[in-house]
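The records we work with from here on pair a chain with its fold. The integers have meaning only within a learned vocabulary of local backbone shapes. A complete example follows; check for yourself that the lines match position by position.

:::
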Amino acid sequence: MKNILSFLLLIFSFLVLGQAKEELIQKIIDYNVFESDCVGVACSPSEQFNRFEKLKSLISKKELSELARHKEPVIRAYASTELVKNDKEVIQLFCFEINKNETVETQDGCLGGYDEISWIIYNAYKWKVALKPITKADTIDDVRNVKISDALAKDRTFQKLDSIILHSDKDLYYMFYHVILKNVEIDEYLLPRIKELALKHNNSFAFDCIADKYPAEVKDYFENDFLRADFNSPNKVIYLDRFVEYLLESNNENYKNLVVKKLKKHNYWKKHLNTIEQKLEKYHVVL
């Protein structure tokens, strides 16, 4: 009799635990915002963050890994971030989210918006690595920055993430390229890919890396390829914005006419956030 009661109690406990997990998962999905531990101007404790912390305490490592492949982006964002912080499945999760290409609403302190989950994973791992060598004694910004740069440069997994981004043909979040190419050292092995990104994929961040050193190829791009180039996505319009700026800054009348032709040919750039109209006004260009 005692054994039967113990068995029934065990079954009941499993059922209660399972229900608690499902309720927490559903509450996270219903709220549907990926929040940090504190939100708002006053940095108030986040109930959403605490829900996941509670869920995390109830599930196994296997269940956490399964949640990182959940159909709901907000669940994947929390589960993937937790795994990445513990050096688990970093490359696999990043590649998975690049292929999914889904966003989630985010709130970190008083900063809110929508972010790709791949970007969330990238930054979770980046800052895990970057802050590891920093101590309380590192109060000078230059010292901190050197330590951060060294840590990222020596971390093979982080370098692999950068390589995946630079060699992907997908329409990835433009901030990846802004961050990676800002201080990149382009050697003979990387140069062909940077040129390909700039002149075949119309990536303005890659373009800025080569524009001064390869004027003949840049001239050929604008004369033969620019008018046909596809800028029909939020990321690509950011690239177009920079190309417009480059062309107008040149004070070249032919380049100015090229801008007018391009912008009049397609108006998709008007649908997305950009500063193209401000640049046209600045350089007295009328479409």
Observations:
- Residues 21-121 form one domain.
- Strands lie at 34-39, 44-45, 103-109, 111-116.
- The radius of gyration is 24 Å.
